[in-house]
UniProtKB/TrEMBL annotation:
Stretches assigned to the Inosine/uridine-preferring nucleoside hydrolase domain: 4-302
Name recorded for this polypeptide: Putative nucleoside hydrolase protein
GO cellular component: cytosol
GO biological process, one term: purine nucleoside catabolic process
GO terms of molecular function: purine nucleosidase activity
Name of a matching Pfam family: IU_nuc_hydro
UniProt keyword terms in alphabetical order: Glycosidase, Hydrolase
Gene3D superfamilies reported for this sequence: Ribonucleoside hydrolase-like (3.90.245.10)
Keyword Metal-binding appears in the UniProt entry: no
Entry-linked SUPFAM superfamilies: Nucleoside hydrolase (SSF53590)
Keyword Hydrolase: yes
Length: 315
């Protein structure tokens, strides 16, 4: 199976992405590294621990990441409720966070891979990129241990979701995003152009409520909270399945089409902070660094998740 690390800020959609990954034998989850993002760090760590227990994966080490973005003031998510898990209340975690930090864990795992002591690792990034950027700044050689970065982030032909131009994960730490994009590692990004193609509709939520085995009620509750009910914006009810597309890409890359581009992140303009600026036609003179996902088989992704969640029946 493919060794992966989930760097994330759970987060309702992060939690769905993790619950999907937990039951996929194709993925060997080495660690989860929560960061300050949708909620402050203490919350994203707590939520990650709770989701591991809910999913029966208390075996996965959780390493706490950065308390703040690299340079800017922290901002938090808007659609995840006051705890980051909507209205869902989960038991206090009995599992505890690891003594080593996320950045130390990334340097250790990716360092071993870079030295050829283990196979290369795929970074599944679901939040602001602070942890990975800091690890790369401390030990640039760990880039050699990354097989690919598969991330949710950016807005290319779509407008932003947090500001006019910018998607939340990019805006929350634009400097980190720019460092990661420039690291010279193969990358795939699922930005709003991709994630807005997969809307989780009330009918879907009803199906998940029936099909998600022993965690059905929690999954349906999380998903119901995710419905923006903003037809004007999205053209339908429902909420976009942002982060779960990262897990889906890992399991079924055939559901996705992408185009290569050089991507830069705006780090200075007050108006456009966090904007992902793509050079599609080689005008910058720099080679493409990212596969930008442009098209998604939405039905395929929903069916994949229904299948993944049904596996909780046996767990
Ligand atoms: C991203 O922002 C967060 O609120 C979600 O978890 C997702 O990672 C979407 O813009
Ligand atoms: Ca997220």
């Amino acid at each position: 199976s493919t060794p992966v690390i989930f760097d994330c800020d759970p987060g309702i959609d992060d939690s769905i992405a993790l619950l999907g990954a937990f039951v996929a034998p194709e993925l060997d989850i080495l660690a989860i590294t929560p960061v300050c993002g949708n909620q402050p760090l203490d919350r994203t760590v707590r939520n990650a621990l709770q989701i591991c227990e809910l999913g029966g994966r208390a075996d996965i080490p959780v390493h706490a990441g950065c308390h703040r973005p690299l340079c800017r003031e922290p901002i938090h998510g808007q659609f995840h409720g006051t705890t980051g898990l909507g209205s869902t209340v989960l038991p206090d975690p009995s599992k505890t966070v690891e003594p080593t930090t996320a950045v130390e864990a990334l340097i250790a795992h990716l360092g071993r891979a870079a030295r050829g002591e283990r196979s290369k690792i795929t970074m599944c990034c679901l939040g602001p990129l602070t942890n990975l950027a800091l690890a790369l700044r401390i030990c640039p050689e760990i880039a050699g241990g990354i097989d690919r970065i598969v991330m949710m982030g950016g807005a290319f032909r779509e407008p932003g979701n947090r500001t006019l131009t910018s998607e939340f994960n990019m805006l929350a730490d634009p400097h980190a995003a720019q460092i990661v994009f420039a690291a010279g590692v193969p990358m795939t990004t699922l930005g709003l152009d991709a994630t807005h193609q997969v809307m989780l509709l009330p009918d879907h939520v009803a199906m998940f409520a029936q099909k998600s085995g022993r965690i059905s009620q929690t999954v349906a509750e999380l998903m119901a909270f995710w419905d923006r009910n903003d037809v004007r914006r999205y053209g339908s009810r429902g909420g976009p399945l942002h982060d779960p597309l990262v897990t889906a890409w890992m399991l079924s890359p055939n559901f996705f089409e992408s185009a290569p581009a050089r991507v830069f992140v705006e780090t200075e303009s007050p108006l456009c902070l966090g904007q992902t600026v793509a050079d599609w036609y080689g005008k910058s003179g720099e080679p493409a660094n990212v596969d930008v996902v442009t098209k998604v088989d939405a039905q395929g992704v929903i069916d994949l998740y229904l299948d993944l969640m049904s596996r909780y029946e046996e767990r």
